[in-house]
Amino acid sequence: MAEVAPAPATPAKTTKKKASKPAKKRVGPSISELIVKAVAASKERNGVSLASLKKSLVASGYDVDKNRYRVKIAVVGLVNKGTLVQTKGTGASGSFKMNKKAEGKTKQLRRTNQQAPV
Fold first, then answer.
1. Residues 50, 75: contact at Cβ < 8 Å?
2. How is the beta sheet containing 95-98 ordered, strand by strand?
3. pTM of the model
4. Strand, helix or coil at 87?
5. I need a surface site. Which of 9, 60, 84, 107 has the fewest CB within 10 A?
6. What residue ranges do the domains of the chain occupy?
7. Closest Cα to residue 62, out of 25, 88, 37?
8. pLDDT for 55-109, tens place per residue?
9. Per 3-state DSSP, what percentage of the chain is helix, strand, and coil (rounded to 5)?
10. Residues 6+ apart with CB under 8 A from 66
11. CATH topology for 31-115?
């Protein structure tokens, strides 16, 4: 009698979980901080246009071509927060300058935080 031996059972495939790489920490200031510095450094009476803002970011070493959308979102966010005032245009286009009222508030907050004992 010729019995057929059953085929050996194949071991169940184990899926190896890939070790997740730790997220790279950003080095340097955020885009919002760079924008605020660029606008504050400007001596223009009517503010800084988006094009000149991008030029100053490129001069400081930021890759604007790669992060074009982030620049727009950061500018709109700073306007909504009240850090920047939009003097011309709507959205991310137009000219922007520092909000003098917001500058006074941040200076007052820093003073009270430094004086308060922890």
1. yes
2. 48-49, 95-98, 84-88
3. 0.64
4. strand
5. 9
6. 31-115
7. 37
8. 999 999 999 999 999 999 999 999 999 999 999 999 889 999 999 886 666 566 5
9. 45, 10, 45
10. none
11. Arc Repressor Mutant, subunit A (1.10.10)
